[in-house]
Specification:
The protein has 405 residues and is α/β, with parallel strands linked by helices. The protein has helices spanning 12-24, 42-45, 60-77, 95-110, 120-126, 149-162, 206-212, 290-301, 353-364, 389-400; strands at 2-8, 30-34, 49-50, 88-92, 116-117, 137-141, 145-146, 166-169, 173-179, 182-188, 191-200, 220-229, 241-244, 249-254, 257-262, 312-322, 329-331, 339-343. Bound molecules: flavin-adenine dinucleotide.
Length: 405
């Protein structure tokens, strides 16, 4: 059996690549291999802020593509994805974050996106749980949304299927087949498949496969976690997403409850060698993140005072691929042919999925990447050992010190 493009991993990246590739190359054969179920690892666990405008400007065109493609897929399937276009508030309470906000507004306008400053009173009207006394500036970007990440991922896979992509679930890739420095296919639990191009889109496990091609992939699995409160009147269903850089926290409505996440003082990381293939029963935290939350709760309570006594109903955690500079790690590996790496999502994979899908579909078809991936270069950290404790700690530190969403 032979495919033009073989994608390892059926998370949102693998599904998005399959969508764009089949859309742009209708005569070619693409196979996606997923050892569990589609979109059931990091993807279904995401808080799914589809952040459009960031101070890391090179992410923006990728996210804009996500917003562009959603109506395209809704039309194809004749179904709504029910994106929640509630907008985002950025609350800056320090000089440095106020400066970042000025920069953010500038970037929003550069990309033709609406952005304005709003008063504390207005912010509290929109989000009654929010305390704004310490805010120096609050920006509101009404064009931003959150979504159901599983739906977005499976919209990509369903549309790709309609266009001829083949998805095989329950099939594990055991080995990348290399001939000299060229990827020529894979060995799976159900036999070998040859392919002109192999794309690794295996999320947290990608370094294991990349190592088989001699690549020390610069990323590490780092846990993200969030909580969902009980329902309360102070959490209106259609209130905006709120980013609190001074508390290193974010929040968004979740059907009358509040979903909120923090950057813990020390983020939990694990070697890709030690993560089970199926994380459904993996214990990300024996106390459901309570010790981590307690460590930073006073910082969060400056903006969300009822966090001290609100009931917590749900805890969600998962692994994303982090890097020391919080930039994606993806593209064409140096010195290896016919292998592409759609990896290192730095906790932004839902937002950037459209751009990532399009970029890799074009690269797999032998065409130029429509986006600037220079910041995401796989070689930018030099030679690294992605399994060493020192490397894992470097990547975990990048998450725990991250202030943006
Ligand atoms: C708690 C949490 C909150 C988040 N919040 C946000 C957010 O608000 N906004 C945002 O944009 N992003 C967010 N993210 C990040 C987002 O979920 C990820 O960036 C995105 O899902 C990555 O997609 P992926 O396809 O790379 O990985 P995954 O979804 O993990 O998919 C990889 C797939 O590869 C498969 N696989 C691995 N190895 C093999 C193999 N050998 N053979 C076959 N299959 C294999 C796995 O089973 C898995 O299904 C969050 C993540 C978490 C965990």
């Amino acid at each position: 059996m032979k495919a033009d493009v073989l994608i390892v991993g059926g998370g949102i990246f693998g599904c998005a690549i399959a969508y764009y590739y089949t859309r742009n190359n209708p005569d070619k054969k693409v196979i996606v291999l997923e050892r569990n179920e589609l979109c059931n690892s990091a993807t279904s666990r995401a808080a799914a802020l589809v952040t459009k405008i960031r101070t890391k400007k090179h992410f923006v065109p990728l996210s804009l593509e996500t917003y562009r493609v959603i109506p395209e897929m809704e039309k194809l399937l004749g179904e709504s994805m029910d994106m929640k276009y509630v907008g985002v508030m950025h609350v800056a309470a320090s000089e440095s974050n106020e400066a970042s906000l000025t920069e953010l507004i500038k970037i929003a306008r550069e990309f033709g996106q609406p952005a304005e400053y709003i008063s504390g009173e207005k912010a509290q009207q929109l989000s009654p749980w929010l305390r704004t006394e310490e805010a120096r500036k609050i920006a509101f970007l009404p064009g931003e949304a959150y979504c159901d990440p599983y739906l977005l991922g499976t919209f990509f896979s369903r549309c790709a299927k309609l266009q001829g992509a083949e998805f095989r679930q329950g099939v594990e890739v055991e080995k990348i087949l290399m001939e000299n420095n060229t990827a020529v296919g894979v060995v799976t639990t159900e036999g070998s498949i040859r392919a002109d191009t192999v794309v690794i889109a295996a999320g947290a496990w990608s370094p294991l496969l990349a190592a088989q091609a001699g690549i020390g992939l610069p990323m590490a699995p780092v846990r993200s976690q969030y909580w969902i409160t009980e329902k309360k009147d102070i959490f209106p269903v259609n209130s905006p997403i709120v980013l609190l850089p001074d508390a290193q926290a974010y929040a968004r409505p979740e059907g009358g409850s509040l979903l909120f996440g923090i950057r813990e003082k020390k983020s939990f990381t694990a070697s890709p060698k030690n993560i089970p293939a199926d994380i459904s029963d993996f214990s990300f935290s024996p106390d459901k993140g309570m010790a981590d939350l307690t460590e930073v709760i006073d910082k969060l309570a400056r903006f969300f005072p009822s966090v001290y006594d609100v009931g917590i109903k749900f805890y969600v955690a998962g692994f994303s691929g982090y890097t020391p500079d919080n930039n994606l790690t993806m593209g064409v590996p140096p010195g290896v042919h016919h292998l592409l790496l759609a990896t290192g999502c730095v906790g932004a994979g839902i937002s950037v999925s459209g751009g990532v899908g399009l970029a890799f579909a074009e690269l797999a078809a032998g065409r130029p990447n429509p986006f600037d991936f220079s910041y995401f270069d796989i070689a930018r950290f030099g030679q690294i050992d992605p399994f060493s404790p020192a490397w894992l700690d470097r990547c975990a530190l990048a998450r725990s010190t991250k202030v943006s969403g």
